[in-house]
Amino acid sequence: MKDFDRKDYYVNRELSWLMFDERVLGEATDTSNPLMERLKFLSITASNLDEFFMVRVASLIDMKHAGYAKRDIAGMTVDEQLEVVSAKTHELVDTQYFVLLHTLLPLMEVEGISFVTRHEHLTSEQAEYVDRYFEEEVYPVLTPMAVDSSRPFPLVRNRTLNIGALISKKGEDTRDFATVQVPGVLGRIVEIPSDEGRTFILLEEVIERNMAKLFLNYDVVCAYPYRIMRNADLTIDEEEAADLLKEIERQIKRRQWGEVIRLEVADDIDGELMKILKEELSVREDGIYRIAGPIDLTFFMKLYGYEGFDHLKRPAYTPRPVPEIRDGEDIFAAIRGHDILMHHPYQTFDPVINFVRSAAKDPDVLAIKQTLYRVSGNSPIIAALAEAAENGKQVTVLVELKARFDEENNIVWARKLEKAGCHVIYGLVGLKTHCKITLVVRREEDGIRRYVHLGTGNYNDSTAKLYTDLGLLTCAEQMGEDATAVFNMLSGYSEPLYWNRLTLAPLWLKDRFLHLIGREAENARAGKRAYIVAKVNSICDKEVIKALYEASCAGVKIELIVRGICCLKPGIKDVSENISVRSIVGDFLEHSRIFYFENAGNREVYCGSSDWMPRNLLRRVEIMFPILDESLKERVIYILETLLSDTEKARIELDDGTYERLERRHREPVNAQMAFCEWAAALCGKEDTVENSRVFIPIEGGV
After folding, report:
1. pTM for this one?
2. Matching CATH topology for 14-231+265-312 and 504-670?
3. Is 434 a residue of the active site?
């Protein structure tokens, strides 16, 4: 029996994630992307890195404080992980700013777009404009804070941009520290007059130029921007929390007092000012990032939205209709006619919204049950559920309060739904409810019929235009029975005696995956057809990886499409020679989870909400559902085949865990996402020229 526990067979999870962000940064350097798209990818890498620190680095630091001694999947201690993550992150940040300063800013200049990076470089006309803007718009909002014997060091809020200064009372030699927060309520990018093209300055430069006006009896010795990142991972004892909603509200407020784990400062910051910040914020040396440019590059996402730059972007892509659902058609009649598969964002998310809206208004609908993990800011789904309750229908909604960084938003929705008369539940103690399922119970001529929507993505109409996901609408009897059992389990802890079609985590899904992988290995040993394709966001569950290694050794060809974290190493002799791993980073965020098993020619295809991660398989409520209709199964297989044929946006993982682009020469260029745009148009009988199709990129890295 081969030993699959060797640490050199695995990649550290955190390093694998950093390699994902490097792949995103690679899109900022790709000359085939228009300039504004490249700037947006740069912005995404910065946003991703923020979340990585607040969650993953924070978690490692918590482990260190707790004396956690267990080694990770790659055999590394917590201290070793912190050391290598710090080195890799500093390297990534340096690369970000090299790309910005030496490639993107010069290209912007060529296009007539310039940033005044130092206020001293303003022309007299621009300086006058900036000073007037400060007096009229900025000054009334600012709250300068000085530190002395009577005024302690203030609370510096998480992820806010600030300007630290040393000030000296006029006529005296002593220096005091002062700080002012750059107000988030004002736009960070300020457009200023220019003789040609368009010129911008950042708000912190406007404030820094006028710092003396904030401390009238002092001389401003020096002033520099800085920004901190705090530990934002919530620690909630659900067993002890009398009211989970109120406990989460309390924990959210505590984020502003979390330990400082990262400090970004200007690379030329004054030494005395640096010493004060380091001591007062209690930040470790390896947590200090000296930035050779503007701090916090996420502002480029705002610039992307400015008018006048369309020639530097891809034209907007409009999701296509779902051909099985015609305008004005009764959606329940459409579902009775045939299971309906939807491929977002290539196809519109509107049928899902209309499914809930129609149920809310339909006098024959008796009940609606739905899980909500993340929803948009002005969600039509929420409005429809509230309307349904007001119309007297039985409405049960599971709102996951522990959806990271969406806690506040979900608390607001939970209260709104309760006020409308919905029965709101908050999930199971100790578990996040991450599955995506809606059940509509309807009285019809031949009795009660259950309609079900199952998806790989959230009920969020905004991200449905950004993330690639699959959704299934069905009224198959066994699916309806299972959907009822799911909600009974979530609301009343009633575990069914058996499941017809659905498989749930945390009790059954991992064993099901291990069985399916093991079955392919047995088929290969018996000389039968064996093949696995899996598309997920992340793979880091060791038992699943070992099962894949075993299947590879048995001769099973395994092709993995993994957007982000992958702790598995492909191509290792006598271990994973039959496994390939590719990551696709494109204009849409790859988010769907799809699983294909050859099964000796009796092909099985599944979709679901779960990745191959311990948190999904052991600590979340997840659902995997089969695609049973043969025509729909063929569509999903086509999706996998197209992704596997991508030569434009795919990176291939090597046997050392690193990634490289496919060699494009001598290959027919295939961009899978653009191919899906064409396919969606073809399905509804419309032509599409994807070369002129712009798609929008989400700020999410799936940490």
Report:
1. 0.92
2. no
3. yes
